Structure formats: C-alpha cells, structure tokens
Amino acid sequence: MSTGDKELIIRAADSSDLQAILEIQMNAFEVYTNLIAAEQIPPLNESLAEVQIDFKRKSILVASRGGKIVGSVRYQINLGVCVFERLSVDPMYQQQGIGQQLVRKVEGLAVLQAHKIYLETGLLAAELIKFYSGLGYSGEAVLKNHYGNFDWIVFSKFFESKADV
User: Fold this and answer.
1) H/E element holding 107?
2) What are the chain's domains?
3) Would you put residue 30 in left (φ > 0), alpha (ψ -120 to 50) or beta?
4) Rounded mean pLDDT of the chain?
5) CA atoms of 80 and 62, how far apart (whole Å)
6) pTM over the 0.85 mark
7) Neighbour tally for 96: CB within 10 Å
8) First-to-final CA distance of the chain
9) Cα(152)–Cα(125) distance, rounded to whole angstroms?
C-alpha cells in the first residue's frame, strides 16, 4: 500500500500530538539547509516547549493518514487577519496535496472571522513561492534581512465572501 492510499483526516491538534508536530516540522524544513544555515530557519530552532506555548495561544491543525500524523499548520486570527505559519508535511508524504488541503482548511475556518489571510516564507524557497501563488496568494512585500538575516516574502489573500474558499 502506498502512502497515499488511506483517507486524509484534518483535525484540531491535541496535546498528545505536539512531539509529532515538532518532528515533522524539523524533517520538513531540513531541506532548506541547502539554501541557508539551519540557525537562520526559525522552524528548525524551535523547542517542544515553544510548540506547547503555541498550542495554548494559537490554533493548530494536523493532517493524519492511517492514524499517523503527516502534516500540520498553525494559525491565529487577530483584528480580521488570519496569520498562518509552520505549514509542515512529512517529506514521505509530500507532493500528495496534503499541504494544499491544510491551507484550504485554514482558509475555510478563517473566512468566518477574517477578511485577509497572511503568511511569510523565505524568498529563496522558489517551490514555496510557486505553491502559494498557485493557491491564489499574492506577493505583498519583501522583508529584507528578516528572520535569520535573510529575505522573506509576505503573501496574502483577501476574502471577498465565503464563496472565495
């Protein structure tokens, strides 16, 4: 059976998921160390204690297949803007639409309370720029010498109605 044969379930994370979330995040972001140093990649420097703090302050979704967590995303909504971050998919499960489904789930929840959704990603990560552009996000700004002293790009999408999701 291939990794794509079981139904994908997206649900709110619970506290027992946090270690798996951190491990998947570390594995997913490791690929970017060929572009910049690991110290410059915030998701690679996060501790379990920091994930636990985010669990208390933000919403976290996990994607699971066959009972195994294979992806996650964190988000929060403030003043009508949804900010999402740490979109992570286990490298063994990438290129199967899991990241896209996690983003779409966040959008579906955010549109109820937000008029805009926002994220930041490294400007050097061309495949992520293509991914977010393909989901309808527009580049809004470049943040020079931002996290880790390298350039980031801000992507956003405005919701005009609930039908936009």
Assistant:
1) helix 98-110
2) 8-164 (3.40.630.30)
3) alpha
4) 91
5) 23
6) yes
7) 18
8) 32
9) 9
In tens, the pLDDT along 23-51 reads: 999 999 998 877 777 787 888 889 999 99
Neighbours of 165 (CB within 10 A): 17
Whether 26 contacts 40, CB under 8 Å? no
Contacts 24+ apart (CB under 8 A), 30-38: 31/91, 32/122, 32/124, 32/125, 35/122, 35/124, 35/125, 36/122, 36/124, 36/148, 36/150, 37/148
Query: In the numeric block, which tokens belong to residue 113?
Result: 């309370």
Cα–Cα distance, 31 to 36 (Å, whole number): 10
Contact between 131 and 99 (Cβ < 8 Å): yes
With a cut of 90, say whether residue 100 has pLDDT above it: yes
**Can you tell me which residue has the tokens 């066959």?**
66
